[in-house]
Structure formats: C-alpha cells, structure tokens
C-alpha cells in the first residue's frame, strides 16, 4: 500500500485528466440500533468534486443489521443520472450485488471508496483479507482503490491503524493508495 501525503482531490483530478475511468463507491451500513448520521469530513467534498467531473457513483446500502436508513444528504450531491443505488446483505459490497458487473460495464478501473466503518464492510470490500470475507473484493477483482481516513466515519479511531495492517500483510499493496489529505 502506498501512503500518500498529497491531496486526494488532486490525484482524482490528474487521473481523470489522464483518462483513468474512476467510479465512487459509498458504503453505508444500516444498523437500526445505532442509527447515526455521522459523516466523515471529506465525503461531501470528494462527492461534489467527482460529480463535477461527471464520475458515476454507487451508493451501496449494507443491510447487515436489518432496518433501513437514508443517506439522502450524500445522494443529493450526485446527479441522479450518474447515481446508482444498491442493497447488499453481507460484509462485502461485491458479494450478492451487481456492483462488479456494473463497474465492468462502465469500464471503471479505479475506485474512490468511502463509508462508515473501515474495520468491517469497507475493509472486506476493499481487500477481503479475513476468512469470512464473502467473496473477492475490489483489489482481488483488479480495481485500484483510493481512500483516506477523511472519507471514513468520524470517530473510528482504529481506522488510523489499518494502513499498517494492510502493509504488514502485503495484500494488494500496489492497488491501494491511502491519502492523508483531501
């Protein structure tokens, strides 16, 4: 994994200008017992930038705990013509959904991933490094992944240690870029 101290927004802009096919994946976990509207500080800025560039975005509702919550404030930042909404019932957004096929159809090669809880659904969807990973994840499917602690739910202190864990495992390091700045 590459830890970059440059701006994620600048990287997205450069990749887009160079013709890289970028898609945004917003992973939202429903949990009726812990309904929260806490958003990471960078989600809105990155979604607004990606929308301005005309990039498609997939909003995946992970119905792991039952119940349904809305992410209308984030949905409103993306043009409805470029927005897709999916429901998934596992810890990996690619397992049991049409996401991989949708991304392939649009020839997406690079994903900007954001969401709530890195330790579970986001981690499983990016790397599938645990035994209960429920199928291949983004890196195993060949996607390059861009993310940042600023795109993950505020208050998840353990999210800061995750890059070191991935590096130690040497799983898909060349396919994951972790940005420290928006």
What do these coordinates show?
The protein contains six helices and seven strands; from the N terminus they run βαβαβαβαβαβαβ. It has one domain (2-181): Isochorismatase-like (Rossmann fold). With 182 residues, it is of the alpha/beta class. The protein has helices spanning 8-17, 43-52, 72-75, 99-105, 118-126, 162-169; strands at residues 2-7, 22-29, 57-62, 83-88, 110-115, 144-147, 176-181. The protein has a seven-stranded parallel sheet.
CATH H-level superfamily: Isochorismatase-like
Q: Count of helical segments?
A: 6
Largest sheet: 7 strands, parallel
Order of helices and strands: EHEHEHEHEHEHE
Structural class: alpha/beta
Give the radius of gyration: 15 Å
Widest sheet, order of strands: 1-7-6-5-2-3-4
In the CATH scheme, what's the topology name?
Answer: Rossmann fold
- What shape does the CA trace take? globular
| Tally of distinct domains | 1
User: What's the CATH C level?
Assistant: Alpha Beta
Question: Percent range for helical residues?
Answer: 25-40%
Low-confidence stretches: 32-38
CATH architecture grouping: 3-Layer(aba) Sandwich
Distance between the termini: 18 Å
The pLDDT mean sits at: 77
Strand percentage lies at 15-25%
* Overall number of strands: 7
Per-chain topology:
Blueprint: E1 2-7, H1 8-17, E2 22-29, H2 43-52, E3 57-62, H3 72-75, E4 83-88, H4 99-105, E5 110-115, H5 118-126, E6 144-147, H6 162-169, E7 176-181
Parallel strand pairs: 1-7, 2-3, 2-5, 3-4, 5-6, 6-7
